[in-house]
Protein backbone atom coordinates (compact mmCIF):
# COMPACT_ATOMS: atom_id res chain seq x y z
CA UNK A 1 0.00 0.00 0.00
CA UNK A 2 1.46 3.35 -1.00
CA UNK A 3 0.66 6.86 0.07
CA UNK A 4 -0.69 9.14 -2.67
CA UNK A 5 2.71 10.78 -3.04
CA UNK A 6 4.67 7.55 -3.17
CA UNK A 7 2.11 5.88 -5.43
CA UNK A 8 2.27 8.71 -7.93
CA UNK A 9 6.04 8.49 -7.95
CA UNK A 10 6.17 4.73 -8.40
CA UNK A 11 3.36 4.48 -10.91
CA UNK A 12 4.98 7.25 -12.93
CA UNK A 13 8.30 5.41 -13.03
CA UNK A 14 6.97 1.96 -13.80
CA UNK A 15 4.18 2.87 -16.21
CA UNK A 16 4.37 5.96 -18.42
CA UNK A 17 8.07 6.74 -18.40
CA UNK A 18 9.03 3.13 -17.83
CA UNK A 19 7.11 1.80 -20.78
CA UNK A 20 8.36 4.55 -23.09
CA UNK A 21 12.04 4.24 -22.19
CA UNK A 22 12.42 0.59 -21.28
CA UNK A 23 10.01 -0.43 -24.02
CA UNK A 24 12.78 0.23 -26.51
CA UNK A 25 14.52 -2.85 -25.12
CA UNK A 26 11.80 -5.47 -24.87
CA UNK A 27 12.14 -7.90 -21.98
CA UNK A 28 11.64 -10.64 -24.56
CA UNK A 29 15.05 -9.73 -25.96
CA UNK A 30 16.98 -9.62 -22.70
CA UNK A 31 20.31 -11.34 -23.10
CA UNK A 32 20.92 -14.35 -20.91
CA UNK A 33 23.91 -16.54 -20.09
CA UNK A 34 23.97 -20.17 -19.03
CA UNK A 35 24.25 -20.41 -15.25
CA UNK A 36 26.57 -23.23 -14.23
CA UNK A 37 26.98 -24.83 -10.82
CA UNK A 38 30.47 -23.34 -10.65
CA UNK A 39 29.02 -19.85 -11.24
CA UNK A 40 26.59 -20.33 -8.38
CA UNK A 41 29.25 -21.78 -6.05
CA UNK A 42 31.71 -18.98 -6.85
CA UNK A 43 29.15 -16.19 -6.31
CA UNK A 44 27.59 -17.81 -3.24
CA UNK A 45 31.04 -17.93 -1.63
CA UNK A 46 30.96 -14.11 -1.53
CA UNK A 47 29.99 -13.02 2.00
CA UNK A 48 27.01 -10.70 2.37
CA UNK A 49 27.21 -7.99 5.00
CA UNK A 50 24.63 -5.47 6.20
CA UNK A 51 23.49 -2.83 3.75
CA UNK A 52 22.90 0.68 5.08
CA UNK A 53 20.67 3.48 3.91
CA UNK A 54 23.88 5.47 3.40
CA UNK A 55 25.00 2.90 0.81
CA UNK A 56 21.86 3.58 -1.19
CA UNK A 57 22.31 7.36 -0.98
CA UNK A 58 26.03 7.52 -1.66
CA UNK A 59 25.71 8.40 -5.35
CA UNK A 60 24.06 11.71 -4.52
CA UNK A 61 20.73 13.43 -4.93
CA UNK A 62 19.01 13.15 -8.35
CA UNK A 63 19.25 14.17 -11.04
CA UNK A 64 22.55 12.31 -11.18
CA UNK A 65 25.28 13.05 -13.68
CA UNK A 66 25.89 10.28 -16.17
CA UNK A 67 29.05 9.31 -14.30
CA UNK A 68 27.19 9.00 -10.99
CA UNK A 69 24.35 7.08 -12.65
CA UNK A 70 26.81 4.59 -14.14
CA UNK A 71 28.44 4.32 -10.71
CA UNK A 72 25.05 3.37 -9.25
CA UNK A 73 24.50 0.80 -12.01
CA UNK A 74 27.89 -0.84 -11.44
CA UNK A 75 27.41 -0.82 -7.65
CA UNK A 76 24.09 -2.60 -8.17
CA UNK A 77 25.66 -5.06 -10.59
CA UNK A 78 28.51 -5.77 -8.16
CA UNK A 79 26.22 -6.96 -5.38
CA UNK A 80 23.08 -8.48 -6.93
CA UNK A 81 24.54 -11.64 -8.57
CA UNK A 82 26.00 -12.87 -5.27
CA UNK A 83 22.71 -12.27 -3.49
CA UNK A 84 20.81 -14.30 -6.08
CA UNK A 85 23.39 -17.09 -5.88
CA UNK A 86 22.98 -17.25 -2.10
CA UNK A 87 19.23 -17.71 -2.55
CA UNK A 88 19.76 -20.48 -5.11
CA UNK A 89 22.16 -22.30 -2.77
CA UNK A 90 19.74 -21.88 0.10
CA UNK A 91 16.89 -23.38 -1.92
CA UNK A 92 19.09 -26.28 -3.06
CA UNK A 93 19.96 -27.02 0.55
CA UNK A 94 16.33 -27.93 1.25
CA UNK A 95 15.39 -31.64 1.13
CA UNK A 96 15.27 -32.77 -2.50
CA UNK A 97 11.61 -33.77 -2.30
CA UNK A 98 10.77 -30.22 -1.14
CA UNK A 99 12.77 -28.58 -3.94
CA UNK A 100 11.03 -30.92 -6.40
CA UNK A 101 7.66 -29.45 -5.45
CA UNK A 102 6.42 -27.50 -8.50
CA UNK A 103 5.99 -24.25 -6.55
CA UNK A 104 9.35 -24.36 -4.80
CA UNK A 105 10.96 -25.45 -8.07
CA UNK A 106 9.37 -22.46 -9.81
CA UNK A 107 11.00 -20.07 -7.34
CA UNK A 108 14.35 -21.82 -7.84
CA UNK A 109 13.91 -21.42 -11.59
CA UNK A 110 13.06 -17.74 -11.19
CA UNK A 111 16.30 -17.09 -9.32
CA UNK A 112 18.34 -18.98 -11.89
CA UNK A 113 16.64 -16.97 -14.66
CA UNK A 114 17.37 -13.67 -12.93
CA UNK A 115 21.00 -14.63 -12.43
CA UNK A 116 21.24 -15.61 -16.09
CA UNK A 117 20.09 -12.10 -17.10
CA UNK A 118 22.71 -10.44 -14.89
CA UNK A 119 25.72 -12.55 -15.86
CA UNK A 120 26.19 -10.99 -19.34
CA UNK A 121 26.60 -7.60 -17.62
CA UNK A 122 28.68 -8.93 -14.71
CA UNK A 123 31.48 -9.75 -17.13
CA UNK A 124 32.04 -6.08 -17.95
CA UNK A 125 31.39 -2.57 -16.67
CA UNK A 126 28.38 -0.50 -17.63
CA UNK A 127 30.01 2.38 -19.48
CA UNK A 128 27.25 4.28 -21.30
CA UNK A 129 23.71 5.46 -20.79
CA UNK A 130 22.60 2.99 -23.48
CA UNK A 131 24.11 0.18 -21.41
CA UNK A 132 22.28 1.52 -18.37
CA UNK A 133 18.93 1.54 -20.18
CA UNK A 134 19.45 -2.14 -21.05
CA UNK A 135 20.58 -2.95 -17.51
CA UNK A 136 17.58 -1.15 -15.99
CA UNK A 137 15.33 -3.26 -18.21
CA UNK A 138 16.96 -6.34 -16.71
CA UNK A 139 16.33 -5.01 -13.19
CA UNK A 140 12.67 -4.30 -14.00
CA UNK A 141 12.34 -7.88 -15.25
CA UNK A 142 13.97 -9.13 -12.05
CA UNK A 143 11.54 -7.21 -9.83
CA UNK A 144 8.55 -8.43 -11.82
CA UNK A 145 9.77 -12.04 -11.90
CA UNK A 146 9.93 -12.20 -8.11
CA UNK A 147 6.76 -10.25 -7.31
CA UNK A 148 4.82 -13.34 -6.15
CA UNK A 149 7.68 -15.26 -4.56
CA UNK A 150 6.29 -15.38 -1.03
CA UNK A 151 2.81 -16.63 -1.85
CA UNK A 152 4.21 -19.29 -4.22
CA UNK A 153 6.60 -20.50 -1.52
CA UNK A 154 3.73 -20.61 0.98
CA UNK A 155 1.80 -22.95 -1.29
CA UNK A 156 4.90 -25.05 -1.95
CA UNK A 157 5.74 -25.52 1.70
CA UNK A 158 2.12 -26.35 2.47
CA UNK A 159 2.13 -29.08 -0.15
CA UNK A 160 5.50 -30.42 1.08
CA UNK A 161 4.75 -30.13 4.79
CA UNK A 162 5.12 -33.90 5.31
CA UNK A 163 8.78 -33.69 4.32
CA UNK A 164 10.00 -30.65 6.26
CA UNK A 165 9.39 -29.53 9.84
CA UNK A 166 7.61 -26.30 10.73
CA UNK A 167 10.79 -25.11 12.47
CA UNK A 168 12.86 -25.65 9.32
CA UNK A 169 10.29 -23.82 7.23
CA UNK A 170 10.17 -20.90 9.66
CA UNK A 171 13.95 -20.55 9.66
CA UNK A 172 14.13 -20.75 5.88
CA UNK A 173 11.32 -18.25 5.32
CA UNK A 174 12.63 -15.77 7.87
CA UNK A 175 16.03 -15.80 6.19
CA UNK A 176 14.62 -15.81 2.67
CA UNK A 177 12.12 -12.97 3.19
CA UNK A 178 14.74 -10.74 4.80
CA UNK A 179 17.17 -11.41 1.95
CA UNK A 180 14.40 -10.70 -0.56
CA UNK A 181 13.86 -7.24 0.96
CA UNK A 182 17.46 -6.32 0.17
CA UNK A 183 17.47 -7.77 -3.35
CA UNK A 184 14.33 -5.88 -4.38
CA UNK A 185 15.47 -2.71 -2.64
CA UNK A 186 18.82 -2.62 -4.44
CA UNK A 187 17.14 -3.19 -7.81
CA UNK A 188 14.32 -0.70 -7.20
CA UNK A 189 16.76 1.93 -5.97
CA UNK A 190 18.68 1.95 -9.22
CA UNK A 191 15.48 1.84 -11.31
CA UNK A 192 14.24 4.93 -9.46
CA UNK A 193 17.60 6.70 -9.81
CA UNK A 194 17.62 5.89 -13.52
CA UNK A 195 14.32 7.68 -14.05
CA UNK A 196 15.36 10.77 -12.10
CA UNK A 197 18.83 11.14 -13.58
CA UNK A 198 20.09 13.82 -15.94
CA UNK A 199 20.42 11.72 -19.12
CA UNK A 200 16.84 10.55 -18.73
CA UNK A 201 15.67 14.13 -18.16
CA UNK A 202 17.24 15.09 -21.45
CA UNK A 203 15.55 12.26 -23.31
CA UNK A 204 12.15 13.14 -21.84
CA UNK A 205 12.28 16.92 -22.02
CA UNK A 206 8.83 17.08 -23.64
CA UNK A 207 7.12 15.15 -20.85
CA UNK A 208 5.66 17.87 -18.62
CA UNK A 209 3.72 15.44 -16.41
CA UNK A 210 6.92 13.56 -15.60
CA UNK A 211 8.69 16.85 -14.86
CA UNK A 212 5.91 17.80 -12.46
CA UNK A 213 6.20 14.43 -10.69
CA UNK A 214 9.93 14.94 -10.24
CA UNK A 215 9.43 18.46 -8.93
CA UNK A 216 7.01 17.16 -6.30
CA UNK A 217 9.40 14.36 -5.32
CA UNK A 218 12.58 16.35 -4.84
CA UNK A 219 13.05 15.02 -1.31
CA UNK A 220 13.67 11.56 -2.75
CA UNK A 221 16.93 9.81 -3.47
CA UNK A 222 15.68 6.85 -5.44
CA UNK A 223 13.15 5.08 -3.22
CA UNK A 224 14.35 6.88 -0.07
CA UNK A 225 12.45 9.94 1.09
CA UNK A 226 14.96 12.12 2.90
CA UNK A 227 12.14 14.08 4.55
CA UNK A 228 9.72 11.27 5.29
CA UNK A 229 7.04 12.41 7.74
CA UNK A 230 5.59 9.39 9.60
CA UNK A 231 2.46 11.36 10.54
CA UNK A 232 1.47 11.63 6.87
CA UNK A 233 1.85 7.90 6.33
CA UNK A 234 -0.10 7.18 9.51
CA UNK A 235 -3.01 9.29 8.23
CA UNK A 236 -2.86 7.63 4.81
CA UNK A 237 -2.92 4.14 6.35
CA UNK A 238 -5.69 5.20 8.76
CA UNK A 239 -7.87 6.23 5.81
CA UNK A 240 -7.30 2.96 3.96
CA UNK A 241 -7.86 0.68 6.95
CA UNK A 242 -10.77 2.83 8.17
CA UNK A 243 -12.63 2.51 4.85
CA UNK A 244 -12.31 -1.26 4.93
CA UNK A 245 -13.52 -1.36 8.54
CA UNK A 246 -16.52 0.77 7.66
CA UNK A 247 -17.43 -1.60 4.83
CA UNK A 248 -17.06 -4.71 7.01
CA UNK A 249 -18.25 -3.52 10.41
CA UNK A 250 -20.16 -0.33 9.69
CA UNK A 251 -17.86 1.64 12.02
CA UNK A 252 -14.31 2.95 11.96
CA UNK A 253 -12.09 3.82 14.90
CA UNK A 254 -10.26 7.15 14.96
CA UNK A 255 -6.60 7.95 15.60
CA UNK A 256 -5.15 10.68 17.80
CA UNK A 257 -1.58 11.55 16.86
CA UNK A 258 0.39 12.94 19.78
CA UNK A 259 4.04 13.59 20.45
CA UNK A 260 5.85 15.35 17.62
CA UNK A 261 3.85 14.98 14.37
CA UNK A 262 6.34 17.19 12.51
CA UNK A 263 9.15 14.64 12.95
CA UNK A 264 10.89 13.65 9.73
CA UNK A 265 13.33 10.85 8.96
CA UNK A 266 15.26 9.64 5.92
CA UNK A 267 13.74 6.25 5.22
CA UNK A 268 11.78 4.18 2.71
CA UNK A 269 8.05 5.02 2.59
CA UNK A 270 7.00 1.61 1.26
CA UNK A 271 8.54 -0.16 4.23
CA UNK A 272 6.88 2.10 6.80
CA UNK A 273 3.56 1.91 4.97
CA UNK A 274 3.60 -1.87 5.07
CA UNK A 275 4.46 -1.92 8.78
CA UNK A 276 1.84 0.64 9.77
CA UNK A 277 -0.89 -0.91 7.64
CA UNK A 278 -0.37 -4.26 9.34
CA UNK A 279 -0.30 -2.78 12.84
CA UNK A 280 -3.29 -0.48 12.35
CA UNK A 281 -5.26 -3.31 10.76
CA UNK A 282 -4.73 -5.39 13.89
CA UNK A 283 -5.52 -2.48 16.23
CA UNK A 284 -8.66 -1.45 14.35
CA UNK A 285 -10.00 -4.98 14.23
CA UNK A 286 -9.31 -5.63 17.92
CA UNK A 287 -10.81 -2.29 18.94
CA UNK A 288 -14.02 -2.87 16.98
CA UNK A 289 -14.45 -6.49 18.05
CA UNK A 290 -13.97 -5.43 21.69
CA UNK A 291 -16.76 -2.86 21.27
CA UNK A 292 -14.36 -0.01 22.02
CA UNK A 293 -14.52 1.81 18.67
CA UNK A 294 -15.44 5.07 20.41
CA UNK A 295 -12.07 5.03 22.19
CA UNK A 296 -9.50 6.65 19.88
CA UNK A 297 -6.32 4.73 19.09
CA UNK A 298 -3.42 6.83 20.32
CA UNK A 299 -0.33 7.06 18.12
CA UNK A 300 2.71 8.74 19.63
CA UNK A 301 5.54 9.95 17.40
CA UNK A 302 8.81 10.50 19.24
CA UNK A 303 12.07 11.51 17.53
CA UNK A 304 15.03 9.42 18.69
CA UNK A 305 18.46 11.11 18.66
CA UNK A 306 21.64 9.31 17.75
CA UNK A 307 22.97 7.34 20.69
CA UNK A 308 26.68 7.78 21.44
CA UNK A 309 26.87 4.47 23.30
CA UNK A 310 25.30 2.62 20.34
CA UNK A 311 27.73 4.31 17.97
CA UNK A 312 30.73 3.10 19.99
CA UNK A 313 29.21 -0.37 20.28
CA UNK A 314 28.74 -0.49 16.52
CA UNK A 315 32.33 0.51 15.82
CA UNK A 316 33.71 -2.10 18.19
CA UNK A 317 31.17 -4.86 17.42
CA UNK A 318 32.47 -8.19 16.05
CA UNK A 319 30.43 -9.86 13.30
CA UNK A 320 27.59 -11.86 14.84
CA UNK A 321 24.93 -14.17 13.48
CA UNK A 322 22.29 -13.67 16.15
CA UNK A 323 19.17 -11.54 15.99
CA UNK A 324 19.27 -7.76 16.39
CA UNK A 325 18.65 -6.92 20.05
CA UNK A 326 19.99 -3.38 20.54
CA UNK A 327 19.14 -1.46 17.38
CA UNK A 328 22.26 -2.80 15.66
CA UNK A 329 22.06 -4.14 12.13
CA UNK A 330 23.09 -7.78 12.06
CA UNK A 331 23.46 -10.23 9.20
CA UNK A 332 20.43 -12.07 10.57
CA UNK A 333 18.27 -8.95 10.24
CA UNK A 334 19.00 -8.72 6.53
CA UNK A 335 18.83 -12.42 5.68
CA UNK A 336 22.56 -12.59 5.02
CA UNK A 337 23.50 -15.44 7.35
CA UNK A 338 22.46 -18.28 5.02
CA UNK A 339 21.80 -20.81 7.75
CA UNK A 340 20.21 -23.07 5.15
CA UNK A 341 23.09 -23.18 2.68
CA UNK A 342 25.90 -22.65 5.16
CA UNK A 343 27.73 -20.52 2.59
CA UNK A 344 27.99 -17.33 4.62
CA UNK A 345 30.30 -17.67 7.59
CA UNK A 346 30.98 -14.89 10.13
CA UNK A 347 34.74 -15.36 9.95
CA UNK A 348 34.87 -14.44 6.23
CA UNK A 349 36.15 -10.92 5.70
CA UNK A 350 33.71 -8.16 4.81
CA UNK A 351 32.80 -7.39 1.23
CA UNK A 352 34.07 -4.09 -0.09
CA UNK A 353 30.78 -3.53 -1.89
CA UNK A 354 28.53 -3.25 1.16
CA UNK A 355 29.69 -1.36 4.20
CA UNK A 356 28.63 -2.32 7.73
CA UNK A 357 26.82 0.35 9.72
CA UNK A 358 29.55 2.36 11.45
CA UNK A 359 27.52 4.88 13.40
CA UNK A 360 24.13 5.27 15.00
CA UNK A 361 21.80 7.78 13.35
CA UNK A 362 18.77 9.78 14.48
CA UNK A 363 15.53 7.88 14.15
CA UNK A 364 11.95 7.78 15.33
CA UNK A 365 9.82 5.67 17.65
CA UNK A 366 6.11 5.24 16.99
CA UNK A 367 3.82 3.84 19.67
CA UNK A 368 0.35 2.54 18.75
CA UNK A 369 -1.88 2.16 21.82
CA UNK A 370 -5.35 0.63 21.60
CA UNK A 371 -8.12 -0.53 23.92
CA UNK A 372 -8.81 -3.69 21.97
CA UNK A 373 -8.64 -6.11 24.91
CA UNK A 374 -5.04 -7.17 24.50
CA UNK A 375 -3.57 -10.45 23.30
CA UNK A 376 -4.47 -13.69 25.02
CA UNK A 377 -1.57 -15.44 26.80
CA UNK A 378 -1.84 -18.52 24.58
CA UNK A 379 -1.43 -16.38 21.45
CA UNK A 380 1.20 -13.96 22.75
CA UNK A 381 4.11 -16.33 22.16
CA UNK A 382 2.91 -17.04 18.61
CA UNK A 383 2.97 -13.46 17.38
CA UNK A 384 6.12 -13.91 15.31
CA UNK A 385 5.37 -17.32 13.83
CA UNK A 386 4.49 -17.67 10.16
CA UNK A 387 0.78 -18.34 10.41
CA UNK A 388 0.45 -20.61 7.39
CA UNK A 389 1.04 -23.58 9.69
CA UNK A 390 -2.19 -22.80 11.58
CA UNK A 391 -4.50 -22.92 8.55
CA UNK A 392 -5.95 -26.00 6.95
CA UNK A 393 -5.16 -26.86 3.36
CA UNK A 394 -8.43 -25.59 1.88
CA UNK A 395 -8.00 -22.20 3.57
CA UNK A 396 -4.41 -21.81 2.44
CA UNK A 397 -5.13 -22.91 -1.12
CA UNK A 398 -7.94 -20.37 -1.31
CA UNK A 399 -5.82 -17.56 0.12
CA UNK A 400 -2.66 -18.10 -1.92
CA UNK A 401 -4.75 -18.38 -5.10
CA UNK A 402 -6.25 -14.96 -4.46
CA UNK A 403 -9.55 -15.92 -2.87
CA UNK A 404 -10.88 -14.36 0.31
CA UNK A 405 -11.84 -17.63 1.93
CA UNK A 406 -14.29 -15.87 4.22
CA UNK A 407 -11.38 -14.36 6.08
CA UNK A 408 -12.87 -10.88 6.13
CA UNK A 409 -12.34 -7.70 4.19
CA UNK A 410 -9.40 -6.64 6.33
CA UNK A 411 -7.40 -9.58 5.00
CA UNK A 412 -7.13 -8.05 1.54
CA UNK A 413 -5.24 -4.89 2.49
CA UNK A 414 -1.91 -6.46 3.41
CA UNK A 415 -0.35 -5.60 0.09
CA UNK A 416 2.38 -3.21 -0.96
CA UNK A 417 5.94 -3.98 -0.04
CA UNK A 418 5.00 -7.21 1.66
CA UNK A 419 4.26 -9.02 -1.55
CA UNK A 420 0.68 -8.28 -2.51
CA UNK A 421 -2.76 -9.26 -1.31
CA UNK A 422 -1.95 -12.92 -2.01
CA UNK A 423 -0.38 -12.92 1.46
CA UNK A 424 -3.60 -11.74 3.06
CA UNK A 425 -4.64 -13.73 6.09
CA UNK A 426 -1.63 -16.04 6.01
CA UNK A 427 -0.13 -14.71 9.22
CA UNK A 428 2.84 -13.11 7.47
CA UNK A 429 1.95 -9.57 8.54
CA UNK A 430 3.74 -9.18 11.87
CA UNK A 431 6.89 -11.23 11.16
CA UNK A 432 7.32 -9.56 7.79
CA UNK A 433 6.66 -6.14 9.33
CA UNK A 434 9.34 -6.85 11.92
CA UNK A 435 11.74 -7.86 9.15
CA UNK A 436 11.21 -4.50 7.42
CA UNK A 437 11.74 -2.62 10.69
CA UNK A 438 14.87 -4.56 11.65
CA UNK A 439 16.42 -4.38 8.20
CA UNK A 440 18.05 -1.01 8.92
CA UNK A 441 18.51 -1.40 12.67
CA UNK A 442 15.00 -0.70 13.95
CA UNK A 443 12.51 -3.09 15.46
CA UNK A 444 9.00 -3.83 16.68
CA UNK A 445 8.09 -4.60 20.29
CA UNK A 446 4.65 -5.58 21.64
CA UNK A 447 3.34 -5.11 25.17
CA UNK A 448 -0.12 -6.45 25.93
CA UNK A 449 -2.41 -6.10 28.93
CA UNK A 450 -4.82 -9.00 28.54
CA UNK A 451 -8.35 -7.71 29.05
CA UNK A 452 -7.38 -4.09 28.41
CA UNK A 453 -5.33 -3.31 25.31
CA UNK A 454 -2.03 -3.43 23.46
CA UNK A 455 0.93 -1.12 22.95
CA UNK A 456 3.11 -1.67 19.88
CA UNK A 457 6.42 0.17 19.53
CA UNK A 458 7.98 0.65 16.10
CA UNK A 459 11.54 2.00 16.07
CA UNK A 460 13.29 3.11 12.89
CA UNK A 461 16.82 4.36 12.32
CA UNK A 462 17.36 6.87 9.55
CA UNK A 463 20.35 7.72 7.42
CA UNK A 464 20.97 11.02 9.16
CA UNK A 465 21.30 14.42 7.51
CA UNK A 466 21.73 14.30 3.73
CA UNK A 467 22.99 17.38 1.92
What's this model, at a glance?
The chain is α+β, with helices and mostly antiparallel strands. Helix content is 49%, strand content 10%.
Describe the structure.
The chain has helices spanning 4-22, 37-44, 53-57, 66-92, 96-99, 102-122, 129-145, 149-159, 166-195, 198-203, 208-216, 230-249, 269-289, 308-316, 377-380, 393-400, 429-438, and strands at 220-221, 224-228, 255-259, 265-267, 297-304, 363-370, 443-449, 453-461. The chain has 467 residues and is of the alpha+beta class. The chain folds into two domains: 4-221, Up-down Bundle (Butyryl-CoA Dehydrogenase, subunit A, domain 3); 225-306 and 361-461, 2-Layer Sandwich (Heat Shock Protein 90), CATH 3.30.565.10. Strands 3-5-6-8-7 form a five-stranded mixed sheet, covered by helices on one side. Strands 1-2-4 form a three-stranded antiparallel sheet. A hairpin with a 3-residue loop joins strand 7 (443-449) and strand 8 (453-461). Helix 6 (102-122) runs antiparallel to helix 8 (149-159). It is globular and about 60 Å long. Mean pLDDT is 77; it is low at 1-21, 317-326, 345-353 and 404-425.
Count of individual helical segments: 17
Class of the largest domain, according to the CATH hierarchy? Answer: Mainly Alpha
Please tell me the CATH architecture of the largest domain by its name.
Up-down Bundle
Count of distinct structural domains = 2
**Structural class given helices, strands, pairing?**
alpha+beta
Amino acid sequence: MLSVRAAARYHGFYSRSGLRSLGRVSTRHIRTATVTDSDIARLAATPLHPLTLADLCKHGRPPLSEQALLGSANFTLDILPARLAHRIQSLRALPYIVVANPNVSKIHGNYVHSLSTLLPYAEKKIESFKDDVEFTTVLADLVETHSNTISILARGFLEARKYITAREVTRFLDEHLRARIGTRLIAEQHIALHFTSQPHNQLSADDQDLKDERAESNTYIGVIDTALKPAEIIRSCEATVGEICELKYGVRPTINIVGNPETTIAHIPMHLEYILTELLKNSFRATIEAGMEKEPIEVTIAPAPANEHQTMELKNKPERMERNTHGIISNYDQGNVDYASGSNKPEISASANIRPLSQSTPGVTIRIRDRGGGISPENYDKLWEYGFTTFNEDEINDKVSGGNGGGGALDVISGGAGGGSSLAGLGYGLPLGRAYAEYFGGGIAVQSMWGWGTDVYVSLRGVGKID
